[in-house]
Design goal:
Radius of gyration: 18 Å
Shape: globular
Strand order of the largest sheet: 2-1-3-4-5
Order of helices and strands: EHEHEHEHEHEEEEHHHEE
Distance between the termini: 40 Å
CATH topology of the largest domain: Rossmann fold
Number of helices: 8
Number of domains: 2
Structural class: alpha/beta
Strand content: 15-25%
CATH superfamily of the largest domain: Response regulator
CATH architecture of the largest domain: 3-Layer(aba) Sandwich
Largest sheet: 5 strands, parallel
CATH class of the largest domain: Alpha Beta
Number of strands: 11
Length: 228
């Protein structure tokens, strides 16, 4: 059974999401602010976090900053429409996805299922090679680790998915909308900004000089590609 944590200061939201997630077979933990969430992460195995941005004591962005120093657990932000700047900051810090309030609990459940299916693999056998290499990049899909020139780098689950998608399709150019559709497995609404944030963050980890990338490159007017 997978454990999902709901971190939101609104008790009604926590209760509603808890009902849906528990009904779907997940073990659910609740936190009312970022500090409570971090305390739970330190003491329990958690497979996915639903994280509100605006909370008292410690907000979601502050909690995510600390969390990413400790863990790469998948994170879905719960955001209001007026929180676009914080949403982008959250993606910069390593959030994997976001849902805008007011949201449909079924949509949240679908996103939780999709993330867990990709990251936990549900015991499925992988037909593709366990280790992918491109230039100095090596990706081990069994241990979910990535190294550059022999040095292991810290990478979030969403960055891992994006990099794996590119490494399985070297030299091919993909638009932001196609990357979003294939990696997020969702309709590409607002895809350009979300994909650009993740690509930029990934470049900072892969490239010696992100301004002059060796691997992840922009094809102006068309999209992105990876080269060796």
């Amino acid at each position: 059974m997978y454990t999902v944590m709901i971190c939101d200061d609104d008790r009604d939201i926590r209760r509603a999401l808890n009902i849906y997630l528990t009904g779907a077979g997940y073990d659910v933990l609740e936190a009312a602010n970022g500090q409570e969430a971090l305390d739970l992460v330190s003491n329990r195995e958690i497979h996915l976090i639903l994280l509100d941005i605006m909370m008292p004591e410690m907000d979601g962005v502050s909690a995510l900053t600390i969390l990413r120093q400790r863990s790469n657990v998948p994170v879905i932000l719960l955001t209001a429409k007026s929180e676009d700047e914080d949403k982008i900051m959250g993606l910069e810090l390593g959030a994997d996805d976001y849902v805008t309030k007011p949201f449909n609990a079924q949509e949240v459940l679908a996103r939780v299922r999709a993330l867990l299916r990709r990251y936990m693999r549900l015991g499925e056998k992988q037909d593709r090679p366990a280790v992918l290499t491109l230039g100095g990049i090596e990706m081990d899909d069994e241990t979910k680790t990535v190294s550059v020139e022999g040095e292991e780098i810290t990478i979030t689950p969403k960055e891992y998915d994006i990099l794996k998608f590119f490494m399985e399709n070297p030299g091919k150019v993909f638009s932001s909308r196609e990357i979003y559709r294939r990696v997020w497995q969702d309709k590409p609404m607002g895809a350009e900004g979300t994909v650009a944030v993740h690509i930029r963050h990934l470049r900072e980890k892969l490239e010696i000089d992100p301004a002059e990338p060796r691997y992840l490159k922009v094809v102006w007017g068309k999209g992105y590609k990876i080269e060796g």
